[in-house]
Amino acid sequence: MLRTTLLGLTKRISSPTATLIRPFSSRPDFPFEATPSAEAQPKVETEQQKDQPSAEKNDQPPMDFLTSETISPSDLRITNETFNSLEQYQGRSIGNVTNTMSAYYRLNAILKNNNVRKELRANRHYEKPTVARRRKNIERNRKLFGAMVSKKVALIMQMKQRGM
């Protein structure tokens, strides 16, 4: 069941799960699920079940926070494709994580190393092509200079350890 918001009105759209296809999958013909799962089936409660408070009702958060602008539950499902993939984003994905906080820390480190937040801030305003080209050249030269300095420092430290 998909939920979309149009002009403040919420509308539910239902579609069979067998027809849903992964948008960025290396196997475009592989559906999310071959058969509808028990989770996709609507639950019918009797009056006796409504009167009795169950732990199942209280433990699960409401699914109203999922809109067309957020991640769908099918995107959160862990598949073997994430771990065995040879796609272009393989080195930038965090897979098979048992501790979610460590995954967030690793993701934050990747975002910081790749300057993603800085790029997003810079893209809020228009930058002339010559200014952008000059800025990128400066960033590239600064990065190369830092790599060269760290390489020279490592060489000097290695020479110091040898006693030269």
UniProtKB/TrEMBL annotation:
Residues 42-59 have a biased composition (Basic and acidic residues). Transmembrane segments: none annotated. One of its GO terms (cellular component) is ribonucleoprotein complex. Pfam families: Ribosomal_S21 (PF01165). InterPro entries: Mitoribosomal_bS21, Ribosomal_bS21, Ribosomal_bS21_sf. Keywords: Ribonucleoprotein, Ribosomal protein. This is Uncharacterized protein.
